[in-house]
Specification:
Blueprint (H helix, E strand, L loop, with lengths): L1 H7 L11 H6 L24 H6 L4 H12 L8 H22 L11 H17 L8 H8 L5 H38 L3
């Protein structure tokens, strides 16, 4: 299982940034030509500025998700804040949808609606980031995620909200992609 998790991080086709390779392959500074030549001005150091592409994403959870997708496999980087930001958006959207649907707290369960939304959002993000959906049964997913709801109840009542959270993730990727594409367009066509 550890091997699967190590090799599958961020490889979900659903979470693939269309500009992801451009961002990953061209991060950092270009090496400056330090040959001073014949005097005059100091050499110019040109930064690629691809980190600025992430900074230009105007939706904070989309920016957080893009950051996780780009740098989340770096074991030296603590991405827990970014993870929580995405989870918060997913859970908030679920609670809003439940209110619109007239759905209250789950029956025969110790979780409040807020707690269930938070646990489901964490599950959706984990399972999508690591492509774990096919490895676990519904009962296994719930157990792994600490969700104390019967598998049949979850499938009949809460699975719709899980699918909506997944679509919310895809929307975040779309927002991030749009902003990065706009940034690249502006790089290629300066005013």
């Amino acid at each position: 299982m550890i091997g699967i998790i190590k090799t599958s991080f961020g490889r979900s086709p659903s979470l693939e940034l269309t500009n992801g390779e451009w961002l990953k392959n061209s991060m950092g500074d270009k090496t400056a030509n330090l040959n001073g030549g014949h005097g005059g001005l100091s050499p110019e150091v040109k930064c690629e500025g691809h980190c600025a592409a992430i900074a230009m994403i105007d939706d904070e959870p989309a920016k957080a998700l893009a950051s996780i997708l780009l740098w989340g496999s770096d074991t030296n980087w603590d991405w827990s804040h970014y993870f929580d930001e995405v989870v918060y958006r997913l859970a908030t959207n679920m609670m809003r949808r439940c209110k619109e649907d007239g759905r209250g707290a789950p029956q025969a369960c110790t979780h409040s609606l807020t707690e269930l939304a938070w646990l489901m959002a964490r599950m959706v993000l984990h399972f999508e980031l690591y492509e774990l959906w096919d490895i676990y049964t519904v009962k296994g997913r719930l157990g792994f995620s600490g969700i104390a709801v019967k598998a049949s109840t979850y499938t009949n009542v809460w699975l719709t909200y899980q699918k909506q959270m997944t679509h919310d993730l895809f929307d975040m990727v779309g927002k991030a992609d749009y902003c990065v594409s706009e940034y690249r367009r502006q790089l290629n066509n300066p005013r």
